[in-house]
Amino acid sequence: MVQMTTADVHEYINGVCFKTGPPGKVGAETEWLVTDPEQPTTPVTVDRLAELLEACGPPPAGSRITFEPGGQIELSSAALPGPARAHEALARDLDHIRKTLADAGLYLAETALDPVRPPVRQLRLPRYAAMERFFANHRHPSGHTMMCSTASLQVCLDTGADAADARARWELVHRLGPVLVAAFANSAVWRGRPTGWKSTRWAIWAATDGTRTRPVLEPHTDRDPATAWAEYALAANVLAIPEIPGGGGQWAADPGITLADWVAGDGPRPFTLADLELHLTTLFPPVRPRGWWELRMIDALPLQWWPVPVALAAALTDDHRARAVAEEATERLCRGAVPDPTLWLRSARLGPVDEEIAACARVCFEAATEALPRMGAAELAQLVDAYAQRYVRRGLCPADDALGALVPAPRQADERSAMAVHGSGLGGGS
Questions:
Q1: Cβ neighbours of residue 189 closer than 8 Å, sequence gap 6 or more
Q2: Can you tell me the distance from the alpha carbon of 90 to that of 53, in angstroms, rounded to the nearest whole number?
Q3: What is the spatial distance between Cα 133 and Cα 137, in angstroms, rounded to a whole number?
């Protein structure tokens, strides 16, 4: 095995994670909690889901089906030219699996956090066993909930035409992050009670080992994106070391070193390229570079609205006029090139009740609505506008629907639920 160096890490990240080219392709990864109305407090088993989905055949538009540790279904589209093509393909595949599940009496939950069922890890793969052990060792109880009870919608966008464009897009998608958290917050109920957060899912993720969940782009830094990601990866705790590079054999969970330590020779064996590739998949910042931008801060949404953040993000980054509007609006919101950590927290806690965030969201939604017909996505423009009318212009988000549907509960119950989120370590891990 050839021991990689720090220079090798930087070279790989610069060449693979930040490869550039003409932007315009769009992809999405939708995660869904699955429920059985006949047994609402019982997890639907992965074995049952896998059997049903295998029997119905592959998705017609080629999306990939995988499972998250708690049995959540993930449907990942191919990267396609423009938001209209991505929407059409993923909608076909989503309808395909929805019909199969409905015929069996199962349904996709329209929330980003399981409101009733406790977290139960179903996948027994070494990766998830090691992850669970790591979070337990570091006293991050939020990690178990994150793995087994949350669902997100991830938007995938091209890096940029060249290094300068990539840096500008990198900064823009980070500034857009808090706006997306707030506008699409959909996880205000947990353990049957309001939590005090509009996006409890985001709060849970933020509470889970800050070396792997905090934003890569932070205030008061001026590093190029590839350098920032390499330094982030090197400073992150190593989750586990497989016996065989890349994931084979037994896994030694939580070896107590950072990646930089391992590269320096402190690990039980030489650090290889396969180990680097695996380590990068265990890092979960709001924007993750993978040869494209993976926007990970968006809550899973009700079925009718999932295309909206995909269309919005694509329009604000790939249409020049909409991008200029979004750059100005988000710089005003962030008071500079980078969002402050407190802005992420405000977005998750308050949603678009926060007037500064709401004002920025309204400008961005208007710009996207105007841009999408120019991108051949007039139907999506109507959907984005309908979402803005239903939520954004009224200072609301889907979380408010869930809160409105709850039977009023005593104030102290709400406070206990909010404290449970704080008790999970909210504010970042070690």
A1: 111, 113, 115, 195, 200, 402, 403, 406
A2: 16
A3: 6
144-158 pLDDT, tens digit per residue, is 999 999 999 999 999
**pTM of structure:** 0.94
| Measured CA angle at 144 (ends 77, 186), to 5 deg | 55
- Given a contact cutoff of 8 angstroms between Cβ atoms, the answer to whether 387 and 315 are in contact is no
Average pLDDT score over residue span 6-18: 97
**Cα(347)–Cα(362) distance, rounded to whole angstroms?**
14
pLDDT score, position 413: 39
Q: What is the pLDDT of residues 32-91, one digit of tens each?
A: 999 999 999 999 999 999 999 999 999 999 999 999 999 999 999 999 999 999 999 999
Q: What is the per-residue DSSP string for 199-211?
A: BHHHHHHHTS-HH
Can you give the pLDDT at residue 414?
43
Distances (CA, A) of 360 to 7, 84, 323: 40, 24, 13
Q: What is the C-alpha separation between 107 and 34, in angstroms, rounded?
A: 6
C-beta separation of 203 from 346 below 8 A: no
Give yes or no for residue 415 having a pLDDT over 80: no
Q: Helix crossing, 320-334 with 307-318: angle to 10°?
A: 100
What is the average pLDDT across 399-412?
Answer: 74
Q: CA nearest 401: which of 51, 25, 111, 169?
A: 111
How many CB atoms sit inside 10 A of residue 242's CB? 19
Distance separating the N- and C-terminal Cα atoms of the chain: 31
Tokens of 147: 């793995």
Mean pLDDT of 121-142: 94
Amino acid occupying residue 77: S
Residue of 105, 118, 82, 200 lying closest to 151 (CA atoms): 200
- Which value, in Å, is the radius of gyration of the alpha carbons in the chain? 21
Give me the percent of the chain exceeding a pLDDT of 70.
94
Q: Which residues contact 356 (CB under 8 A, 6 or more apart)?
A: 333
Q: 31, 74 in Cβ contact below 8 A?
A: yes
Q: Which two tokens stand for residue 190?
A: 């947990």
**Two tokens, residue 44:** 């639907």
Residue 366 has a CB neighbour count (10 Å cut-off) of 18
Q: In this model, does residue 424 exceed pLDDT 70?
A: no
How far is residue 293's CA from residue 326's CA, in Å, rounded to a whole number? Answer: 17
Distance CA 70, CA 122 (A): 5
State mean pLDDT over 6-11: 98
